[in-house]
Protein 1
Amino acid sequence: MGRIKNRIRRLRFDHDEMTQEELANRVGCTRQTVIALEQNKYVPSIELAFRVAKAFGVPLEEVFQYEDSQGG
Amino acid sequence: MAPLQKRALLSLLIGLAFAIALIVVLLLEGDVTAFNRDETLRWITYAALIGVPLTYLILIDLSLRKPTQLDERDRLIILKSGRVQWLAVIFSLAAWVIALTEIYQEQRQVPVVFLTLIMISTLIISILAQSLGILLGYWRMNRNG
């Protein structure tokens, strides 16, 4: 089993310290979901993942990374 | 707290208030057949019958339409809360069947008032259970991810 991690918090700060509220409005979700994403408590749908990447203007893999716990 | 989480908590409290009001009146009357002669009891029951689903409709269904209020994570939690809801309904119906069978076994008939009571209790339990399921869903997601 693997784990999906993300760099949303880092990317927000790199984008003029974008607030969670602002990101939520841009991608069309609640601020609580942004918080859950940043804490790796929720894995988004592919659509939301693409919207987050688009909000930062970066490719998907720059936001989300798959970590294989078996090291493969 | 997510908007849906707040609404679910409010819905749970309102549903509990209706349920407690109904139980208190039934206990004060001491007999469920009071439903036939007590107008207050009937009106509390009718209010619950309409009020509980209306509260649910307004709080959870109608007021959370914008994506910034209700998103995919919330919808996933609503979907999962259905399991808590149907389990609660099945267990409450089983409790009714066992209780009524045991109490009225000798009479071989059950007072008609129980049809209304079963309906109202199922309705209240269904809505309470969904609200509880939603709250549990958030709790689990925040705990386990």
Protein 2
Amino acid sequence: MSHNGLSRRRFLQLSGATGVALTLASCVPSTPADNMAGPAAEARVVSHYAQGLTPRERLETDRWDPPQALWALEEAYKDLHPDVDLEFVESVASGYDEWMVTQLTAGTAPEILWYQRGWIARDYEKNWFNNLDPYLSQPNPYVEGYDSWKDTFQGPVIASGTAPDGHIYLITGDIVGTGFFYNKSKFDELGLAVPETWAEYEEAQQAIADSGTTPFSVSYHLQGGTPLYGSWTTRVFQDVLYDHKMAQISGGTPVSRTWKPGEGLQPPAMVRAIRDGNYAATDPEWLEMLRLMKEWSVHYPEGFWALPAADVFRLWAEGEAAVAWLGSWMNKPVRNDPLIEFEWGIFPKMPTVTQETSQYGGLGFPAMAGVGGVFQYITTTVAEERGVLDDTIDWLQFLTAPPNLIEVLNDHGGFAPGVKDTAGADPTLAVYTDMLVNFGAERIEPFDSMLTREFVDAMWRNLQQFMAGELSADEMSSIMQQEMELAAQQLLNEHPDWAEA
Amino acid sequence: MSATLSTPSSGQPAVARPLTARVARYRTAYLWLIPTFALLLVFNYYPALSALYHSLFQWNGANIKLFVGVNHFVDLWHDPLWWESFTHLIILTVALVAINLTFPLGAAAMIFHLWNLRAAYFYRVLLVVPMVVPGLVILMIWMFIYSPNIGLLNQSLALLGLENLQRFWLGDFKLALYAIIFVGFPWVAGIGTLIYLAGFQAIPSELMDSAVIDGASTWQRLAFVELPMVLSQIKLVVILTVITAFQNFTIVLVMTNGGPGTKTLVPGLHLYKAAMAYNRMGYACAIGTVLFFLTLVLTYLNHRYLRSSVEFTGS
């Protein structure tokens, strides 16, 4: 029998050859450039993970405009530098830290990555990102009238990217804030004024609860809830309750409350305080913090530890909750969301815990605000290996020229510019920056960055259990003291120079 | 064609040929196996051996790499999170094995016994179609089902007047793990059903006819003829289920991130966090190594003790 098809041998040969070719092709390392839409062959590529500033088209489900200003700036930059292609890496929906660590470990990271300043102490010795001091000391070619690029920023803003070795690794360009957003219509309906003390606030919350509305919208879900609201709450409470012990924690030096990040108690100081027993999870102040948080939680939504974090805004916007603690990044949504059908306002400051409420009370809360929000970028060391570090720096210099930075931040709508020349900045953000300047920021390094990532995970995990009633305050305190000592010792082993001030 | 039942040891003696001659005869086939094995070596065996090696180091994946011997294994032994996650893993594995030994098997048996071949084909396709939906989408759907405020489950309970049964399913400290197990209910749209169905369809019709002639009822046929004949498929499904349960942590990562507290933490997620969040790559390698050996032992035990007393050979 004869046929015109492939013989078995021929078929096997062709299959094998195709398989080998595919295998070899798959072994060719990819670069971010591979993902780009038709870059010119000779163009140098700078990829940028811009986090919340990443431009995208508006979707049908969007209730407000997404950020798009970077596209306009990209075009302007391209006109000046046709030999450089910019690529904005798509936002990572969740697990950003893990994604970032994987990319940095594998050497496949974009040239510019969004980065939390609190992670610097953890990572600065890993050779993942560049010391930017040499560039910051030179003038920014896109800005006139300043001696150096560094000088164009507000001092505390750019200094926030300083690692324990004294070098700046992070370009920080914005200021972020939070506030208690309240349903003014509801408050008026119940005849409530904005409370000034915690006791007044308690009364107001009870009145709201009695009217059938949830007083305070919050989530302690492990994904996005506890790491946000647990962090904010502990940060501001600690600052007040430990006020009388700040000098003891710092090793003798008074710690004044300012909005300058480097002037608080940094990780090395906290490690020493834990080692020397000057700061402990078994402190009465720490237990007092837990007590106040637990008492407050009776006004949280039912099952708040299981509430998806995204529901916090929804509950408030739909009028089911009277107050929500929102970040300035919600400034634009709050102003544009058609779901909101009531008058709203922002507490000018958090109600003060007086001594009537706590023996450690008396001092007003700091602003839950700080330096560095959406605009915190590192340049990765792979940029140098790819021969585009100078282009990467140049793009960041272009981007941080005040008019450009303000254009991008205004378009986003949730962050105030951290440069000296703020002409044209969105005036609706002044409420957050005013709080930061007037009340200062917390002095004790937040749990997020105080010790190790393992510690902070344990902290949020146990805090969630405590808030849900699965752990007593004493159990929580005892567990966290062990975790604290372990983490402090680990950091001392990794950074022997932290042992002495 | 004839069919016989024989013990495994009663096969025909093979004609002995020198190994080199046999290899030479099938050299083309061996040649084309090389790419497959090369990929296996690079992407499966090398990482496994690398993990074994790195489990002996304090390694952060970047600038710190110190030899610490078996310290990580000692630490693991004293790690309460490991033991808690391992307990959850045992519960999940037992539940999944029980599920995969019942629901897909039942579905496959029902389809196999359908007289109408067109209907059997239809139901088979119906079970296969959900398999093409990405797993993440399935998990997102289940997260919506479990959502405390707007979720299908709680809303349905409210509609039925059963508000007292409403729960924060994935946030309930006592129920979260069982809510994870319940994902995928009724658990019939998976590879298990197809494996069982293939086993049922391979049973020779002569055997079934003999059972009918001998007066066996439907249940007797199922219990004494069909199930013993699909024992190798059952064994395969058990092995695959155990391996999947030991390796898979996507479901808890996406749905609960191990919470509430640590109530759904599993060793795979513990490993992932140690490596990717805490930069404790060496410790993560130690967890991976332990899981690998545990899986190996369980697979061996499954092979050793779950064995059919008869083996069918067709000729």
